[in-house]
Structures
1.
Amino acid sequence: MIVIADPAEMQEMARGWRAQGCKIALVPTMGYFHKGHLSLMEYGRKVGDKLAVSLFVNPTQFGPAEDLDRYPRDLKRDTALAREAGVDVLFTPAAEQMYPAGYQTFVTVEEVSQGLCGASRPGHFRGVATVVLKLFNIVMPHVAVFGEKDYQQLVVVKRMVADLNLPIEVVGRPIVREEDGLAMSSRNTYLNPEERRAALCLYRALQEAQGLMSARKSHRDEILAAVRRVISQTPHTRIDYLALVDPETLKEVDAVRGSARLALAVWVGHTRLIDNCLLVEL
């Protein structure tokens, strides 16, 4: 595995791969790898001739009061895990390489970035869309692989690719969970033991909603009321948002007709966690 920090060097390698007729798969990450990241790499390895993984804690997607400075980092560990996963190149640029002096160009995906996490984190998806487009231009992938845990991010990237006519297939892959159901996240490391137990309410809430679907109770109000009840009864938690939305437009729906995406964000102690699931009408 090659480790590259310079965007120009990465771009030159990508040009060489394309000249050889290789299909490039890209897994964009912010590092501190867990099994969820590794599952994306495994998929990328299967669908591409060359697998690139970017590791960049992107400052433009963090708000002033968010956790940019304390976001978990361990480059040595991540490098070893990427090598074991069969990654061909690990792209690790510095912030000043991605946003050099005088940088002033940003990408805004309008509607699908507005609600959910977009409402709670103003400017977040502007930073996401900008850095992802830059990564696409540098790595030049044929396919890009994202996890469904950050579901709104996936929708934003797909919308950007479609709107800007980018010749890239964007693939969303299933959430990887701990044995007890907690969605894997680098931010889980912030949780103390008591908060870690409390965090399971997110998964229990999603299961409760799935149970309502089995009972053919598909109206938004009863689904969100059940989800709210599960979370509000759990100590150390504070709901940021609960929403039942169309899987493509992310607009709120009044009932599950066909399918809908249940999305939630919950503060557990000082840590904000997100999760989601697809609800299907029976």
2.
Amino acid sequence: MYSGHVAASAYYELAKDGKPDTVVLMGPNHTGYGSALSMMRQGAWQTPLGNVEIDTALADQIRQETNLIDVDEFAHRYEHSIEVQLPFLQFLYGVSFKIVPICFLMQDYDSAFEVGSALEEALDTVNAVVIASSDMTHYETAKNAAEKDQAALKAVIDLDAKQFYETVETRNITACGYAPITALITYAKGICAKAKLLNYRNSGDITGDHSSVVGYAAVSFKK
């Protein structure tokens, strides 16, 4: 109820761009379960809208490009950051697409950069979309959250992964999935994409309480 309308801004943009065969979904590991950097390579994820199959061939191709990612179902079992994207995707595409879910407990820059670079190689000839799922600043005033988040988003729009990562670290921005975002920026720059900020809001816009909010942003990356 707080972030959905912001996410919808990105999916509206995606809806105008045709249907991908596969969606690579990257998000943070909030639970601490499982491997530090993990994917599922087979099976399906179920929502009330149906089952979405995992793209085993592409998952294996990504793992060939980097030895950092483990295959670990347990890391995904209770994690919400990736699965909340599926209803949006299913609304657009039904179940006629596949996914590769990658969950980041380890959020150092080098690992994120390597994953982004691996995606550049693995997705070179594939009709795929990459999505990073993360909230922005947590539980600060709307004013403070906006100041911090806009600084981080400037680096996103500039496709400067290192600057984004350092801004999050030095300004103590509590974005839960900053490594997935860093990986996505790395991938986007590698394929010569351009970034555009589509929407920025916070939870106070829904609750009316701006004293302690969570920030949300939608950004598109287009070749």
3.
Amino acid sequence: MNARKTTPAADLKLALGWLKQHGTRAAREGMSRYNIPSDRAFGVPMNQVQRLAKQLGRSHELASGLWDSGWYEARLPAAYVSDPALVTPAQMDRWRGDFDNWAVCDTVCFVLFDRTPHAWRKVEQWARRRDEFGKRAAFALLWGLTVHDKSAGDEPFVRSLALVERAASDERHLVSKAVNMALRAVGKRNPALNAAAVAVALRLAASPDPSKRWVGKNAARELTSASVIRRLARRPAGRA
């Protein structure tokens, strides 16, 4: 695809044409192994999607067009192309309402939403949601913040552990996996947060609830491992 920009509408047409050209039936059929719906997919590998996003460059209007097209491989680069500074809470809620698979959910939360000024508020709001992907989005977003919000102190992460502990009872695999990943990520941010996250993990591990017990045992095993402890020992408290 030619990287030269024309208009967002023309670039959208070119991008969709490029995706169609680079999709394969084999890749599309293989998506089912990863629980990704293929009825609105071209069958383009993620590395090729990222290549396209790099060629497209930053364009908030183009990102909206890519998203609204409804195609799986168009929604992935939309996260890279969109401008975090222009993302509104309403856009976040609208896109979150369209999540229908874990790959789009996690990519959008980890590449775009966690870089917006509204991210922490959405973690709290979405953690109360009952729909599977809306709730997963809360903890995918929290996971992203542990990596990318370098300016945040420990307080918002400590508060988020209450959300983790409450959501750990969710039996749905896609939710419990995200809750587990968020807990582990918080606990690997610095020594103080490791101690707070381990305390939560141990409480969950002792629960009679099987979902809580799985989240807790899995997180506690990693967060108390020698490799994590050594890495955190080299990282000053309060530093990500």
